[in-house]
Amino acid sequence: MERMTKAVKNFGLPRIIIIAFFLSLLVAAAVTGMDMAALLGDVVRRWAMYGILVLAMVPSIQCGIGPNFGVTIGIVGGLLAALITIEMRFYGFFDSFANGGAMMQVCIAILLALILSSILGILYGMLLNRVKGSEMTVSTYVGFSIVALFNILWLMLPFKNGTSIWPLAGEGMRTTINLEADFASVFNNLLAFKIGNFEMPTGLLLLFFLACFFVWLFTKSRTGMMMSAAGANPNFAKAAGINVNKMRILGTTISTALGGVGIICYAQSFGFLQLYNAPQMMGFACVASVLIGGASISKARIVHVLLGTLLFHGMLAVALPVANNILPEGNLSEILRIIISNGIILYALSKAKEAGK
Amino acid sequence: MSEKKSIWSKIGNTLIKNNVTVLFVLLCVGAFFASTYTLPSLFTELFTRLGRNTFLVLSLLIPVVAGLGLNFGIVIGAIAAQIAIFLVVHWGFTGFSGILMTVLICTPLAVLFGFLVGKLFNSMKGTEMIGGLVAGYFSDGLYQLLFLVILGGVIPINNSTLMISTGMGVKNVINLKDNLRYAIDEVSMLSIINVAFYAGILIGVILIVYRLIKKQDLQLKKLLTVLIPVIALYGISYVPAIRTFLSTPRLMLLNAVELGVIGVALFNIYKLIRLTAIEKKQGVPIKQLLYIAGAGAVYASTYISVIYQSLCAVHLPVLTFMLIGALCLFMPWLMNTKLGQDMRTVGQNRAVATSSGINVNRVRIIAMILSTVLASYGQLISLQNIGTVATYGSHQQVGLYAIAALLVGGASVQHATVKHALLGMVLFHTLFILSPNAGQQLLGNAQIGEYFRVFVAYGVIALALAMHAWSNRGPKKQRGTLVR
Asked: Residue B315: inside a domain, yes or no?
């Protein structure tokens, strides 16, 4: 019994509640006669869709800056990269690839996102080195202000293609950009197969696992070990001759770059690019996911990403149709998302030991 | 020569220290000249916004003193106010009695919420600010659950004007036009004087009776010095011309300035006479003369046409500004009480506070309760002026704009005063009013100006937080070198 309570304590009460809730939602869906295969397909699709964004939390937590609320910085970098490739497509850049054009475009978008977000990430990491101890608050508000700054940029970008800009007035980017003509679902459809109504987004899932594998490989490498050491105990790391600040910048940059790649994978699955204020709260959802998976403010592993994303986004994927079935009016699943994601962050904050004191 | 240099370097230092404020002054001046606004039109909007939001900004001060940082959780106070407003509108209260009813409902709610948030913050010392922000979002979720699902879904509410036609959930907008709108703003001076008169008489009688029973000294002289002006004002209010002036719902800013000038002048003349004639002090009383001259100069300046027009354009809601003024006086008073001193000690160093016998957790909870209650009143003042409640939106940005305004005034995470709040309100809202127009004029797109002001709000907070964390590292570094 004692062992069990200890196990429960280790696993965390909110996690147990969420798993129980997830399972009961699945049961409710089955009972109300929903198409379980399609629903599970949706769960898997959502899992892979949000996965890389959530993965971005791992390097940031390991390098010691805590959950990266400012992953929005990487996200706007990724959005800019995607916009640039749309403009390139408009000028016929991908025409020569015939059927592989969309795939080529998304790869270039990812490459560009890596570059742009890394540059932003380095600057961001340098800032965070100057505000040790209050990274979470600062990164949240830096993230918010970057989103607002990019709102102005979206209005002023000199792009010409009709996919991105408003049709008549022609000033500024659209709020949501349809990717139908660009790279919508290219990863989802890669090697995709269907069992009944269950759709397997094989390519996207493989990409997600690949990214997880690379990050795992990195954390096992010499540099990755040094980075985790710098995050876990900065003073000890310093004594061991590790350049703590450099490691923090490295972790922040990887996290931000993953944010940039993550949003492109998200957008290609979603089918739309969402500009303006859409990315503002995405950081919170990512933080909540990894925390639900079992991470804390100072510790995170790949397993937490896999489990947390599946639980949080899977739950939302199931909750939406179930909630609509039970209560057609009202925005129950959205309310659920707000309460659960912020509740888990509050829980993690209250469990964290006081920083530096 | 050296003295002069030190003055210049002093000025330079203050400018650098208050860089955010200085930058904002420059931005405001620039935006004003870029925009098509005139001084009167700017004044009108600015004073509307000041009346609306100053109370909310002032509610941020107590947690800063108590070391809890910027209270992003005032959103929760605003939520308490909106729940109370919904109930009051549903039950059909109107006018000032409706406001009193709202206060009656939202105070216990806000106390409860503040207590809970305080408890929560005690378990996350050091990360209260991010905690407050997340707690705000969290309670927004609970609020939506209450207003969209529970009201009407679980608790039946029959009210077709408030509820969505399906009967479940509250509509997007609660219209206050026929019940609470301007219920605080348009309380006339006449009613205020009447209430003050009756309350004054009542309190006076009670005090005299109490002292007679307890056989204490009556202190009649002290009592009369307070009561006589009140009675005199009440008497004067029966003069027909004055009565019509007093019974207008709002006070023109020009008249307010005139009244203020007359008040200052009379008070100083009285002091002057007392100093020279009764106390027979030697030398010229320069201070009083300067005050009188200043009052005269202010009065003279109202004859400048631009200033005259601006002052005529603004009609002040009297009670609202009186409440704000009262809160401005309450803050310094609170800081001088035992509780205020405890808060200051807790804010400076929790370990020291504990060792000197202060219950740190209790003081922090009290600070959060006070802040939450004041924030709920602030939201009430703001909403009765706007006249509509966006059920799912009115509370959301409250914390952001209030905190940005406070920081613009020169406050920091550890130090904030009434002065910072007032200066910040003027600067922040001036830019807020001007930037869409200035964006339209400069770049041909009002949207840019609108995004710019949002960017400024977030940016100011990010900058202040970063600078706070930055300067916090200084002493630690020094300590490190000492150890070495």
From this structure: no
Q: Say if A171 is an interface residue toward chain B (CB within 8 Å).
A: yes
Task: Supply the pLDDT for residue B148.
Answer: 87
Picking from B214, B248, B282, the residue at the C-terminal end of a domain is B248
Q: Is B134 close to A335, i.e. CB distance below 8 A? A: no
B192 in the same domain as B137:
no
**A134–B129 CB contact, under 8 Å:** yes
Q: What is the CATH number of the domain that holds B365?
A: 1.10.3470
Per DSSP, B452 falls in state H
CB-CB: which of B127, B140, B148 is closest to A349?
B127
The shortest CB-CB distance from A354 to any of B125, B153, B166 is to B125
Q: Same structural domain for residues B108 and B220?
A: no
Least CA distance to A350: which residue of chain B?
A: B124
Residue A355: the pLDDT is 43
Q: Cβ–Cβ of A134/B468 closer than 8 Å?
A: yes
3-class DSSP state of B401: helix
Whether A84 maps to a domain, the answer reads yes
Q: What phi, psi does A275 have (nearest 5°)? A: -100, -165
CB within 8 Å: A152 and B445: no
The pLDDT, as a whole number, for residue B45 is 92
CA distance A235 to B378: 46
Q: What is the pLDDT of residues B334-356, one digit of tens each?
A: 999 999 999 999 998 899 999 99
Which residues of chain A make contact with B466, given a CB cutoff of 8 A?
127, 130-131, 138, 142
Which 165-194 residues of chain B touch chain A by CB within 8 A? Answer: 166, 168-169
Looking at residues A86-102, what average pLDDT do you find?
A: 78
Mean pLDDT of B215-231: 81
Q: Are residues B465 and B371 in the same domain?
A: yes
Kindly state whether B285 is in contact with chain A, defined as any CB-CB distance less than 8 angstroms.
no
Query: Got the DSSP string for B102-143?
Result: HHHHHHHHHHHHHHHHHHHHHTSTT-HHHHHHHHHHHHHHHH
Q: Residues B149, B222: one domain?
A: no
Band of residue A330 on the pLDDT scale cut at 50, 70, 90 = low
Tell me: do B23 and B71 sit in the same domain.
Answer: yes
Q: How would DSSP label each residue in B371-394?
A: HHHHHHHHHHHHHHHH-EEETTTT
B257 assigned to some structural domain: no
- Chain B nearest CA to A297, separation (Å): 11
**Mean of pLDDT over chain A:** 86
Residues of the domain holding B108: 3-177+326-471
Cα separation of B358 and B270, whole Å?
45
Q: Could you give the CA distance from residue B117 to residue B151 in angstroms, rounded to a whole number?
A: 24
Is residue B469 less than 8 Å (CB to CB) from chain A?
yes
Specify whether B171 is located in the same domain as B198: no
pLDDT at B365 over 90: yes
The residue segments making up the domain with residue A126 are 38-279
How many structural domains is chain A composed of?
1
Q: Examine the pLDDT at A161 and tell me if it is beyond 60.
A: yes
